[in-house]
Design goal:
Residues 198-208 have a biased composition (Basic and acidic residues). Pfam families: Gluconate_2-dh3. Residues 198-219 are annotated as: Disordered. This is Gluconate 2-dehydrogenase subunit 3. The protein has 219 residues and is mainly alpha-helical. It has a domain at 36-172. 45% of the residues lie in helices and 0% in strands. It has eight helices and no strands. The chain has helices at 24-34, 49-59, 72-81, 96-115, 124-135, 149-165, 169-175, 207-216.
Length: 219
């Protein structure tokens, strides 16, 4: 796990909820996402759930002191439960839900064969070793049922997990993003300039100034 590094002190994107920066659609989408808790599960079964959570922890590890961690696995589960598809896929991959079921079963099989335990039971070094092997297509257990492990990693694991992380307000606060559908628009487009409704990045020695500025965002 990583220590917290707060580049946007005092910034809370949710303070913009009722400001002119957001519209009704943005508020509705965010309300739906915020109802998803870390253990919200409708698609993955009891065997798959700890595996997807362990994968999410390795792809997007979060600070240990974060009070409101992004429920990454639950957001991926929500995407699959609602059958929200990308609209395209590699022809060597099955459809998204089948690909995830195959991939999680196969990773557990590979973990058992190489280390004698399920994927979520392994230490981080062993988990990373398996994911790196999947990344380059070196995992070929029969449980993959012909699905290339590198395609599963690059076309399902990375995009689904990373997009889930950055779809959440906690991640938006981390990177100082104001959220989608900003009716105000952006005017100050030059380097190192920002509109007053954007988050202020903490400069060395000027953290207090950024904190004060960020408390005003959304007002």
């Amino acid at each position: 796990m990583l220590p917290r590094r707060d580049l946007y002190p005092g910034y809370d994107v949710l303070a913009k909820r009722d400001s002119p920066s957001w519209n009704a659609k943005t508020r509705a989408v965010l309300d739906e996402r915020l109802r998803i808790g870390p253990e919200t599960r409708r698609f993955f079964d009891e065997a798959e759930w700890p595996t997807i959570k362990a994968i999410a922890d390795r792809i997007v590890p979060q600070p240990v002191d974060r009070a409101d961690p992004v429920p990454v696995a639950a957001l991926v589960d929500h995407k699959l439960a609602t059958d929200t598809r990308d609209g395209y896929r590699n022809p060597e991959l099955p459809e998204e839900r089948e690909a995830w079921r195959l991939g999680l079963t196969a990773l557990d099989a590979e973990a058992q064969a190489r280390f004698g335990a399920r994927f979520h039971e392994l230490g981080t070094w062993a988990q990373d070793a398996l994911l790196k092997s999947a990344e380059v297509g070196e995992l070929t257990d029969a449980a993959w049922a012909g699905m290339p492990s590198n395609l599963f990693f690059h076309k399902r694991v990375l995009p689904d997990v990373v997009k889930a992380y950055y779809a959440h307000p906690t991640a938006w606060n981390e990177i100082g993003w104001g959220g989608p559908a900003s009716p105000r628009g952006y005017v100050r487009m030059d380097f190192d300039r920002r509109d007053p409704w954007e988050a202020a990045e903490a400069k060395p020695g000027r953290e207090d100034e950024a904190y004060e500025d960020n408390l005003l965002v959304g007002r």
